[in-house]
Amino acid sequence: VQLQASGGGLVQAGGSLRLSCAVSRNIFSIDNTGWYRQAPGKQREMVATIARNGIRKYTDSVQGRFTISRDIAKNTLNLQMNSLKPEDTAVYFCNANDNGINYWGQGTLVTVSS
Fold first, then answer.
1. Residues in CB range of 81: below 8 A, 6 or more apart
2. I need a surface site. Which of 2, 43, 78, 93 has the fewest CB within 10 A?
3. Is 28 helix (H, G, I), strand (E, B) or coil?
4. Which DSSP category does 74 fall into?
C-alpha cells in the first residue's frame, strides 16, 4: 500500500486545515487507516483512526475538533482539522494497517501560530 499525504501548511490558531492522503489500494478494503503526528522532540502519536467497518477513534486532545473520513470517489483518507491550536503543530503522517503490516506516507507539516 502506498500513501501520499498533502494539505499541510501554516495557519493561525483557531483556523482550519484539511489533510488528504491518496491511497494506492481500495481504502475500504484496508483493516485500519489513520492519521498520526510527531511534534519536535516528541514521539509519534495517534491522532485519529477509522476501521474498515467505519468505527472512528480520536485522541482526547482532538476530540470534537478533528474529523477523519474516507472519500469513496477519490479513494482518499481525509482529516478535517478545526479550531487548531499551537500544540497541534507537528508533522502529520497517514497510516494504513492491513494484516498486521504498517504502511506510512511521507508526512506533511502543519504549523499553527499563536
1. 16, 17, 18, 19, 62, 65, 66, 88, 110
2. 43
3. helix
4. T
Q: What DSSP character marks residue 25?
A: S
Sign of CA dihedral 63, 5, 51, 42: negative
Q: List helix spans (H) across 13-114.
A: none
Burial per residue of 12-35, b for 16 or more beta-carbon CB atoms within 10 angstroms, e otherwise: eeeeebebbbbbeeebeebebbbb
**Is 88 strand, coil or helix?**
helix
Find out whether 4 and 104 touch, Cβ atoms under 8 Å: no
Per residue in 55-93, pLDDT (tens digit) is 999 999 999 999 999 999 999 999 999 999 999 999 999
Q: What are phi and psi of 9, to 5 degrees?
A: 165, -165
3-state SS class at 79: strand
Retrieve residue 75's grid coordinates: 479513494
